[in-house]
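Please fill in the sequence for the structure shown.

STRUCTURE ENCODING:
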């Protein structure tokens, strides 16, 4: 089970200069159909412009938290507000325009016949002019170094190429909030460095779920440490990464 109660969040604006919370979760829980508690009693406030890493070993519930905090999965109990709105059907289009989500497995996300059509899909769904969408695809396919695979079907891409395509689809529309689930897992060194660079250059509020300690200082300034017992152990700054015994006890190293 995951337990987190953030204290002193009302003073965050004075401490870090951010504005109103863009994500507010109060005592949220999620129970699987078989009765297993995946998340229980989770509360957090994330401010506009923050970069938060959900750091924990595989299987500790990070992916479920990403789904809950992004509004893709309704909590069994508790309350979530994203940009001041409840993640319900009435606000679905607003949230789609302001949130980007990158899933751990790109195959869960990529389904169009070609990479070009994949990149054009969300702009079309949001009513963007075709000429503007084409210009975005040209810009971001070059930036992500995928311009030479635009006519390929996504299933024929390498794992690293799939990951870059899925991140490009989310980043190119410059979402207010960007969620990434294990964005650098199972890719080669060059692709890993490129993904870290692109996340680092994003102007979005960023929430990243990862088990890779070394990428955290490059993409985040706040760390929520989740142990292998699914309990949140700490919520703080990058100094948490220096506590070796603490991280060993959490099952991270």
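FILLED IN BY: designer on duty
SEQUENCE:
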């Amino acid at each position: 089970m995951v337990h987190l109660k953030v204290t002193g969040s009302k003073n965050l604006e004075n401490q870090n200069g951010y504005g109103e919370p863009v994500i507010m979760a109060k005592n949220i829980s999620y129970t699987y159909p078989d009765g297993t508690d995946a998340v229980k009693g989770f509360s957090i406030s994330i401010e506009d412009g923050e970069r938060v890493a959900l750091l924990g070993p595989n299987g500790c519930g990070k992916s479920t938290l990403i789904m809950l905090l992004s509004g893709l999965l309704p909590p069994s109990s508790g309350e979530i507000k994203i940009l001041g709105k409840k993640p319900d059907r009435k606000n679905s289009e607003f949230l789609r325009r302001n949130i980007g989500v990158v899933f751990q497995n790109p195959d869960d996300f990529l389904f169009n016949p070609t990479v070009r059509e994949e990149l054009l899909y969300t702009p079309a769904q949001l009513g963007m002019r075709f000429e503007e969408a084409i210009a975005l695809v040209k810009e971001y396919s070059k930036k992500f170094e995928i311009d030479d695979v635009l006519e390929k079907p996504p299933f024929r891409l390498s794992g690293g190429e799939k990951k870059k395509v899925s991140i490009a689809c989310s980043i190119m529309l410059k979402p207010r909030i960007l969620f990434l689930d294990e964005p650098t897992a199972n890719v080669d060194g060059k692709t890993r460095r490129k993904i870290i660079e692109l996340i680092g250059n994003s102007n979005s509020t960023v929430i990243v779920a990862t088990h890779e300690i070394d990428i955290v200082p490059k993409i985040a300034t706040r760390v929520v440490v989740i142990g292998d017992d699914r309990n949140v152990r700490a919520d703080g700054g990058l100094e948490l990464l220096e506590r070796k015994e603490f991280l060993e006890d959490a099952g991270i190293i």
